[in-house]
Amino acid sequence: MFEDLIREVKSLELGMRVSVPLPSDDKGFLDRCCPSRNCRAAFKVLSDDWDKKVPDDRAFCPICRHTAKSDDWATTAQIRYAKDVAMRKFRSRFHSALEAGARGFNQRQRPGFITMSLSVSPESPQFVLPCSVGDLMEQEFSCESCACQYSSIGAAFFCPACGHNSALSMFSHTLDTIQRTMEALPVIKQAFGDDRDAAQNAIRLVVEQSLGKLVGAFERFSEAIFEMVPNAPLAKVKRGSFQRLTEASQLWREAANKGYEDFLNPGEFASLLRLFQKRHLLTHADGIVDADYLQKSGDLEYSMGQRIIVRETHVLELLSLVQKLAAELRQFVPSSTGAVVP
To answer: Which range marks the domain in which residue 296 is found?
Structure first.
């Protein structure tokens, strides 16, 4: 009676391979997510570049430089989207087999006192919306080495296609983007209308994220430019050295006879330390003040157990400090290296 259905079920027992093209955004960029559990950064790559420039056996995270096969970078939303599309195709094949069985059954009926018929009701249509990532701090980049186009929320440091370290060229771009983000805060607030709580929460998140992006961008910048300095003591550079200002400053002093304290006045350097510690606290303790923060930051405004407040003025202050410090560090890269130091 249902030979078509039985045949289809047996076929599906062998597995069903479905190719699902992933949707891109209005600019043609494809959402990607770092598969490293320690990172999980969201970014985008121009869909054509992902297909043509990213090798099948290796792609790079632009934030942490984790490497994995090109088919391991799907976002949670994309995986859900692909499963929905595959399930619809499975249901379509199953539905068609049921319909064929029902038609065959109906055709074999003969007129009489009792007649039977079978029908298969069509499924309700399902709509799968494309996934997308949007944020005020999204930046678009083009790799200097292979011209792959990609974007990320905030600073990005490595090309997804070739792994080229682009920390230097991205630093100034990051500062400009964060400057524009701070200028857009009133617009963000207005977008929430009368919902003041939601507006305040959104502003807080944007400001805190901006502080984190600035610290991360400067860390990568100082690390990348340090490697270009002649006779730099690279052997002494440990993992995370440039996350710690005093340690990084000492490395520069050994390489160039000057540390961060020589480029900033005492008040500026104290502010830099405090703002870096605020970011560390937000990242590792959800902003809750602990003894380590009080000791390292010298911040007398808070006591144990309080949550720090990060304001727009703090972000702009940090932006000015790292901009000034970066300008001083650039002078130690000789032009003979051929490096482009924006």
So the answer is: 170-334
Residues 159 and 228 in one domain: no
Q: Are 53 and 164 in contact (CB under 8 A)?
A: no
Can you tell me the distance from the alpha carbon of 229 to that of 248, in angstroms, rounded to the nearest whole number? 14
Residue 74 is encoded by which pair of tokens? 């799907």
Give the count of domains, the chain.
2
Domain shared by 45 and 139, yes or no: yes
Q: Which two tokens mark 336?
A: 């003979």
Tens digit of pLDDT for each residue in 297-307?
A: 989 999 999 99
Q: Is the domain of 33 the same as that of 73?
A: yes
Q: Which residue pairs, CB below 8 angstroms and at least 24 apart, start in 247-251?
A: 248/222, 251/226
C-alpha dist (Å) from residue 122 to 7, 84, 89 = 21, 17, 14
Taking a C-beta distance cutoff of 8 angstroms, is the pair 278, 296 a contact?
no
- 97-118 pLDDT, tens digit per residue, is 555 555 555 555 555 444 343 3
Q: Which CA distances in Å does 324 have to 251, 260, 274?
A: 19, 10, 17
Predicted TM-score (pTM) of the model is: 0.64
CA–CA distance, 316 with 176 (Å, rounded to integer)? 11
Q: Taking phi first (over 0 means left), then psi (-120 to 50 degrees means alpha), and beta for anything else, what does residue 320 get?
A: alpha
**225 and 160 in a common domain:** no
Domain assignment present for residue 117? The answer is no
Is 293 found in the same domain as 180?
A: yes
Same domain assignment for residues 37 and 62: yes
